[in-house]
Amino acid sequence: MDNLTARELTGSEGLDREEEDSPQGKAPVKLREHIIEIISDSGEGAQKCGQSFASIAAKMGNGIWTVEIIPAEIEPPPRSIAGASGNRIRIGSHRITNGGDEADLAVVFNEQVLRGRLRAGALKRGGIILMENKWRFHREAAIVAAYTAVHEELLRDGYRVYEIPMEQLCLQYTSTPERGKNMFVLGMLSAIYSLDLKLAREQVAFTF
Length: 208
Hints:
By secondary structure, the protein is an alpha/beta fold. It has one domain (31-203): Pyruvate-ferredoxin oxidoreductase, PFOR, domain III (Pyruvate-ferredoxin Oxidoreductase, domain 3, 3-Layer(aba) Sandwich), CATH 3.40.920. Helices cover 34% and strands 21% of the residues. It is built from six helices and six strands; from the N terminus they run E-H-E-E-E-H-E-H-E-H-H-H. The protein has a six-stranded mixed β-sheet with strand order 2-3-1-4-5-6, with helices on both faces. The protein starts with 32 loop residues before the first strand and ends with a helix.
């Protein structure tokens, strides 16, 4: 898995950049604002993850606006284009008054819900996509083929795609990774956006 650094979150024009030293020797970048989407099948906890992320960021003094992503169908089947559920979070160093237009970064639990958001024009061309990669190794060939096709299409269209073994990494902490994956994503986004990890832990404790 490639390491995603703060420097890679600066694809948008007009961002207020401020370089500082970091323990990794890479200069983090101060963003004036960013739009993040967390997208999953219904019931996988993406909405709770987004709400928790927004709460932490707001407690740190950031401007925040959240919009729930609601499935287009009632009780859609898993891995369906119409089944996208989650949250959009617009975060900034200034007052935020709406959800914005196209997302700069998306975290997706499967490639089919991502297709639904792409069709809706919700993601910025050339933006960053963090994808659960377990589908690449699925026992059903049709699912592997569907995942691979979307991944290749994203690369052709210029998106910056990072495949992340979310459930595999969660197995280090729980025997039911599908239930804890949303909190893994919360921690990942907190690290990417330099949120206060103490506040993040308190938020998780409050939520559960």
